[in-house]
UniProtKB/TrEMBL annotation:
Residues 292-305 have a biased composition (Basic residues). Residues 286-312 are annotated as: Disordered. Gene3D superfamilies: Ribonuclease H-like superfamily/Ribonuclease H. This is RNA exonuclease 4. The keyword Hydrolase applies.
Length: 312
């Protein structure tokens, strides 16, 4: 800690500074318009600190050869002034920008794109899904399905289809979705795509990031016990906040995705590979949850039986 108090010495306005350090106190006083005053430390300065007596000015006369502690004090002053300058709101913003720049530089060094793990194109027990949306309705405030992709546990594409929305497209959102008007030429009817996807995911574990958005766009539901959402899995969250898929991919898979237009194939693979990394722990935690729920159910049943026997 450091503290400052104004003192007057021989008609001059001085500032008395007090610095805390290991092994005692170090203090100094000087006139900003003159050369540095002598630096003293010890009981004399500490005794007169509150009273601001004759020694409050610390240096009773200007010392052309400052105390050896002066160099140490000077270095402390430099560090303290730099700290106070950096502690301003603007300084904090600057530091945040530097940190974000370093993070972006780290991401920029990562390779881009995800490839399949093998040539296996079979319908595996675990599937990953990702959808891209376009804006429909007045001012494109509503989202509608425009493309859906399913990959297996090896990352190979099982189904990838453009979809013609039920409503008129107001905004293709090409910058994010990658959907363009020419994609709608060969797009399939929504109900046909919905039926195909429903048949493929039935009885399978479904992996994705923010799965509720994809299922809502497809107008489908899936058993909660068979869904694995990387945005809802506790170890992958940041406190109560969910994390973006591209951040998880950069941290866990060490690849960069979603740099410009989103690719549903790449996003589905990222979700699947993240799940594969945490599969053992994830599945074990789900089994433990089911076991706890069953125990609670058994306890409630036993309690009801006991209450019924007591009434009789």
């Amino acid at each position: 800690m450091r503290s400052c108090r104004e003192a007057h010495f021989r008609g001059r306005s001085l500032e008395v500074w007090k610095f805390g350090r290991e092994g005692g106190e170090l203090a100094a006083a000087w006139d900003w318009k003159a050369s540095p005053w002598r630096v003293e430390s010890g009981e004399g300065l500490e005794r007169d600190w509150r009273g601001m007596g004759k020694q409050a000015a610390v240096g009773r006369s200007w010392n052309p050869n400052p105390n050896p502690n002066w160099a140490q004090l000077q270095s402390k002053l430099r560090t303290c002034t730099s700290c106070t300058a950096n502690d301003s709101v603007l300084g904090k913003r600057k530091r945040k920008r530097k940190d974000s720049c370093s993070d972006s530089d780290a991401v920029a060094d990562l390779p881009s794109g995800l490839n399949p793990l093998s040539h296996d194109t079979s319908l595996t027990k675990v599937l990953a899904i990702d959808c891209e949306m376009v804006g429909v309705g007045f001012q494109a405030t509503k989202s509608a399905l425009a493309r859906v992709t399913l990959v297996n546990s090896c990352g190979n594409v099982l189904y990838d289809q453009y979809v013609r929305p039920l409503e008129h497209i107001s905004d293709y959102r090409t910058r994010i979705s990658g959907i363009r008007p020419n994609h709608m030429i060969k797009a399939k009817d929504f109900w046909a795509v919905q039926q195909t996807v429903a048949d493929l995911i039935k009885g399978h574990i479904l992996v994705g990031h923010a799965l509720h958005h994809d299922l809502k766009a497809l107008l489908l539901s899936h058993p909660k016990s068979d869904t694995r959402d990387t945005s809802e899995y506790e170890p992958l969250r940041r406190g109560s906040k969910t994390r973006a898929l591209k951040d998880l991919a950069a941290e866990i898979l060490r690849v960069k995705i979603q740099q410009k237009e989103h690719c549903p194939v790449e996003d589905a693979r990222a979700a699947m590979y993240i799940y594969n990394k945490h599969k053992k722990v994830w599945e074990k935690s789900l089994k433990d949850q089911v076991r706890r729920k069953n125990k609670l159910k058994d306890k409630k049943k036993k309690k009801k039986r006991i209450d019924a026997d007591l009434k009789i």
